[in-house]
Amino acid sequence: MLQSRAPRWVLSLSAALTVLLALSLASMSIGAYRKVSLHTVLEYAIHGGQVPPIYVAIIHVRLLRTLAGMTVGAALAFSGASLQYVFRNPLADPYIFGIASGAALGVILSLYWGQASPMALYTAASLGAIAALALVAAGGVLGGGTAFSYIVAGVGIGYLMWAISMILVLEMGPRAHYSAIWLFGTLAYVDSVELRTSIIVVAAVLALALSLHKRYSRLLLGEEVSAIYGTPYRRALLELTVLSGVATAAATAMAGPVGFVGLVAPWIARLTGTTLYGGFVASTVVWGSSLVLFSDVTARLIGGPVELPLTAIMSFVGVPFIIYIMMKLRGSAAWR
Amino acid sequence: MEVEGALSCGLELAGVEAHVGSFHLGPMSLVLEAGKVTVVIGPNGGGKTTLLRLMAGLIPHKGEVRYCGSPTPATPGRGGLVDYVPAEPQADPYARVGELFEVSGASLSKARSYFPELDEFLPRRTRELSLGEGKLVCLLRGIASSRKILLLDEPFTHLDVSRQALVLRVLREEAGKGRLIVIAMHELHLLSAIADRIVLLKDGVKLFDITPSEIGGHLKVIEDAYNARLATIETGAGVILLPSPIGVPGGDG
């Protein structure tokens, strides 16, 4: 009955928040400077200035990175959740729709022209994502405004933008190394101005989408019945695609294109909790933040001369998970 | 003329016409009374679904659709007046049955009063239901909504006989409470059990609009429309039409 819905969604979100809390503490206490441990961090948080200034600086760096990871995870998870919701496609995520590739191309172009300041990169990523989104939206609308037409447009434009990025990176000579790392996602170069901008953008997108949760929940009824109940399908398709694009741009501008988060997080939320838009997106956002923090902590633990990019680590988690989902859904109408 | 509309409140289609791809429906005029069940029959591709979708405000059309004398908006749902249950369930495969009721605001207690086993279905995802169960759930959702006009496309397909009987009884009961119900279907044998009026469509054109008692006199029109021979069984409750294996009129049977 209906009251069984509340515990399920509360349980799922509580589990997600617990995992996120644990990973946040790990992210705050794990790093190259072993002396700044969980104990040091908690002492600083509770007693204030009782720790050496150098430790405080390290704590602030880790805090920046932790918040950046949570923001990136939240943004990509939101995008994946919204795109999967409206397209009813289990593979829908910011990558499939070319948005991440557009943001990446923006940044690579900026680097290619020698503009490497945080704000230049941020602006370039946003413009690239918006350009990709505009092309995908135009292609989708021209193709009839159906879910299929958006996906075809997204895959095509994504490949094209990725190809241009690759050509530019190969042209860049000695600067190619940094660009290549960035192309697979990293939190190592985030600064506080970028972080603040991304947090504001992602929070605004989340607030707007969640304030319309009833509108989007009606999509569960199907294209025709949801229209009858006040949610015209094609309008919702466009709205959620644009909101996802803006969130993805905010994440990519800061950390590069991070793969698999937008694909995997919605599935964890879907299989454990509600499918009503509000609860589903809230739970996905928390799982997405956890996934990025997990990848980032792992990147720091593995260490080495160069930190591993986030997508590389996410792939090791994401690929087995996607295969698991495929096996679970084998033969069902949802896997098409 | 508005006075006449007020006397028998209902849905009035005045010269409606629609194009969907290469298919053309109408121009057609129809008056459907509240408290009655109108059944639209006709061969595949005859325009039954298009007519329902037009009534639901889901496709652009010419002409006017009035309810109780006043024009209705040509928007999906016609301003909260119409509910529609499509032939094939379109619900998200991961949505739980209870969530479908919740997002549409359908009354669970009303659905439960007609189908007490509903509670067992509420926590299940639609992808876990059989075709018949999925169909029944979608029908109950529409039936349990508060909208005055209920449009049902193929409500009896996939249902077993006990659930067909349940739906028949529930729809009669809903009509008795004043709801305007329109059904598109192929089960000619159920006509006399459910229909107050029967509309026959072929190639987007209305061939007749009759009451079940007039079926006997229109048998030839129905046979010609379907290009099939029908057997009839006279019962106290009316004529029952069945496909006859003898052959197609004009064929070699």
Task: Tell me about this structure.
- The complex is a heterodimer of chains A (336) and B (253).
- With 336 residues, chain A is mainly alpha-helical.
- Chain A has one domain: ABC transporter involved in vitamin B12 uptake, BtuC.
- Helix content of chain A is 75%, strand content 0%.
- The N terminus of chain A is likely disordered.
- Chain B has nine helices and twelve strands.
- Chain B has a six-stranded mixed beta sheet, with helices on both faces. A four-stranded antiparallel beta sheet of chain B has the order 2-1-4-5.
- Chain B has one domain: P-loop containing nucleotide triphosphate hydrolases (Rossmann fold, 3-Layer(aba) Sandwich), CATH 3.40.50.300.
Can you tell me the CATH superfamily of chain A?
A: ABC transporter involved in vitamin B12 uptake, BtuC
How does the helix and strand content of chain A classify structurally? mainly alpha
- Average pLDDT, all residues of chain B: 92
Q: Structural class, from helix and strand content of chain B? A: alpha/beta
Architecture of chain B in CATH? Answer: 3-Layer(aba) Sandwich
Helix fraction of chain B, binned, reads 25-40%
What average pLDDT do the residues of chain A reach? 86
Query: In what range is the share of β-strand residues of chain B?
Result: 25-35%
Largest sheet geometry of chain A: none
CATH topology of chain B: Rossmann fold
Rg of chain A is: 20 Å
Helix content of chain A: over 70%
Q: State the fourth-level CATH superfamily of chain B.
A: P-loop containing nucleotide triphosphate hydrolases
